[in-house]
Amino acid sequence: MDKLNKSSMYQMIVIILMQTMLLLFMATWKEIDLFGISYDKLLNIVIFVVVGLSLLSLIVVKEIYKVIEYETEFKIQQIKLEENKRLIQTLRSQKHDFLNHLQTIYGMVQLNKQDKVKEYIKSLNNDLSEIKFTSDGLSNSILDSILIPKKLEAIKQGVSFTYKVERGVEDVDFPLDKLFRIVSNLVDNAIDAMEGFNGKKEIRLIGKNNGDNYHLSVYNIGPIIEEELQHQIFEPGFSTKGDGRGFGLHIIKSLIEEREGKLELKSEAGFGTEFTCILKKK
Q1: Residues forming a β-bridge with 265
Q2: Model confidence, pTM
Q3: CB 3.0-4.6 Å disulfide test: which of 70, 151, 252, 278 passes with 262?
Q4: From CA 279, how far away is CA 174, in angstroms rounded?
Q5: pLDDT band of 154, cuts 50, 70, 90
Q6: InterPro entries of this UniProt entry (predicted)?
Q7: Which CATH superfamily is domain 133-280 in?
């Protein structure tokens, strides 16, 4: 694709140079008076050629734009493919671990070692036991299965992560895997934003029922996004963290808008940063 872009740019440069040369040629024609061709006749020929070159320029610009779109879409598909590969790898690893645990528990049951089974199951929850839930720490929603591991990950990063999801999220007109992807990406971005931040590290996820819509917001009290960057942050490939990044928010926004929803951003000094997904219900 880079070769196509370079080739199209070379074509544009050649066309512009040809137009410039023709115009310069016309400007000096009366003084030179070559070949005995009348000025008016030559002017008509040059106008015809310049118009033709201008149309050719428009065609080349259109092709360049198409190539850029294809390149952007290709990168987005690459990111999605990498996400799917990581998900498959995670599921395979979890399946392997799950089977091992089941076999261990089954063996203990066969040997009538019920006490050992209890101890073993308790040991599997050591990581989760480190999480201190408040009275509303569990929302009993479909998002608990993804938010509990995220809370554990945040704690390991030294970040306070609380969430409260009202009933109604199960009625959102969204495939569950895509809803999980949106929540996962927004929370991961919030955790990443805390890296290197010296102030209070806090993330809150709130799900609110709002009539025909469901509002899902992810807020962090840490660094803000500068106002001049806020309109660029959803553009594909835009990132302040290096090449090969900057597609996550674009993908999230695209997924939400596919279902006629909205993704809004508020980032102000003294407030923090909040991404709000406005999702339509079924």
Answers
A1: 275
A2: 0.54
A3: 278
A4: 8
A5: confident
A6: HATPase_C_sf, HATPase_dom, His_kinase_dom, Sig_transdc_His_kin-like_C, Sig_transdc_His_kin_SpoOB, SPOB_a
A7: Histidine kinase-like ATPase, C-terminal domain (3.30.565.10)
